[in-house]
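Hello Y.,

Per our agreement to keep a running log of every chain we model this quarter, I'm adding this entry. I've kept the format consistent with earlier entries: sequence first, then predicted structure.
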Amino acid sequence: MNQTLIQEILEVVEQAAIASAKLTGLGQKDEADAAAVEAMRLRMGKIEMKGKIVIGEGERDEAPMLYIGEEVGSGSGPGVDFAVDPCEGTNLCANNQRGSMAVLAASDTGGLFNAPDFYMNKLAAPPAAKGKVDIRNSATENLRILSDCLGLSIDELTVVVMDRTRHKDLIKEIRGCGAKVQPISDGDVQAAIACGFAGTGTHCLMGIGAAPEGVISAAAMRALGGHFQGQLVYDPAIAQTSEWADYTKEGNIKRLNEMGITDIDKIY
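Predicted structure for the entry above:
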């Protein structure tokens, strides 16, 4: 990507952030998200590119803009794939809490994971632990490895976990090892990125969150040299979310297959 295109893409997230920031603290999470989506889509449309949303606001019938598969840009110029979250942490924005941000990941065509707006099991860790911790390990084993890699005792480690019912056992295991848990209500992109920098006090992100944020976090951690692994979650019994009240495991697998994802348990 040339420098001009990069600068224009930076302006895309800037405009989304400005639009949603005007609603900070007003308790209007849906309105803040809509404002960010509209601003992001408007700025993207002015860029000389053949852009495509590969993971974003959801399916076409659920999102009027920035839906999976939507073409953005002028229609001429370089091909660019996008993973977007115009207002990551809408509740945080609505309640004037830290951590909400406008984010996207961009690549040449074919460079980003094209998946439905599902859930994803995630593991993020600092550069020193890259390739050493593994999402297939237990939390206990990963904490031991992380302790060795960072030269810290386990009781000095802080692990960020989304505050969700599905993580009850995970949180119990982490605390049982002596590590600190920092529960968050929203905004796991910020938590993943924090693992890539020294001095943030965040040493690891574990647990299940949204897949678009997982792709964006993976792109950020690649840039920072940190560790990130993700594995799609398609079973409603594991996701334990009211949003999937009418979804079935079989239906979710069918949707994955329709998008060309046949190795549904692959670890990315």
